[in-house]
Amino acid sequence: MTKQPTSRTCFMCGRENPVGLKMEWYNDSEKNQIVGTVTIPEHFNGYPGIVHGGIVAAVLDETAGRAVMLDGDFENLFVTLKLEVTYRNFTPTNTPLTAIGWVTRRDKVRCQVAAEIRLPDGTVTTACKAIVVRPPVEIAERWAPEKPFWKVNPD
């Protein structure tokens, strides 16, 4: 599997973000999906032992959106236009979780993507469907200074 790049400051993947989750994702070309793992600390709970729903949605949003880079084009960044989250089971804190994302439909400007969070036994806790689009010019311009730090770090 090919590792995807991470940034410095992103809440999800930022290597230098002291309160971030520091997630990493890998392209699984054989299964046509991306896979990431994370253990979410208790301080991100909504109720004791349960990950806050907003954090769960953020993990799904990032994972689904990163699925557009499955082809290995790591400059192919999109932003979320619409996110639909379905909470099926509680997502526990302090538990290794797997986030899986894939593309369901694609064109040059807009993609439909999906993602799931799974427990170690494979149970799906939460799923999403999303529409992602190319970012507006002003967003892309804000990204330019960070671009040199968008890289794949060794394991």
Number of domains: 1
User: What name does the CATH topology carry?
Assistant: Thiol Ester Dehydrase, Chain A
Order of strands, widest sheet: 1-2-3-7-8-9-6
Q: Share of helix among residues?
A: 10-25%
CATH homologous superfamily (4th level) name: Hotdog Thioesterase
Distance between the termini: 12 Å
The helix/strand class is mainly beta
Describe the 3D structure.
By secondary structure, the chain is mainly beta. The protein has one domain (2-138): Hotdog Thioesterase (Thiol Ester Dehydrase, Chain A), CATH 3.10.129.10. It is 14% helix and 37% strand. A seven-stranded antiparallel sheet has the order 1-2-3-7-8-9-6, covered by helices on one side. The model has no long low-confidence stretch (mean pLDDT 94).
How is the topology of this model organized?
Elements: E1 2-3, E2 24-28, E3 33-39, E4 45-47, E5 50-51, H1 53-66, E6 79-87, E7 96-106, E8 110-118, E9 124-133, H2 137-143
Antiparallel strand pairs: 1-2, 2-3, 3-7, 4-5, 6-9, 7-8, 8-9
Summarize this structure briefly.
The protein has 155 residues and is mainly beta. The protein has helices at 53-66, 137-143, and strands at residues 2-3, 24-28, 33-39, 45-47, 50-51, 79-87, 96-106, 110-118, 124-133. The mean pLDDT is 94.
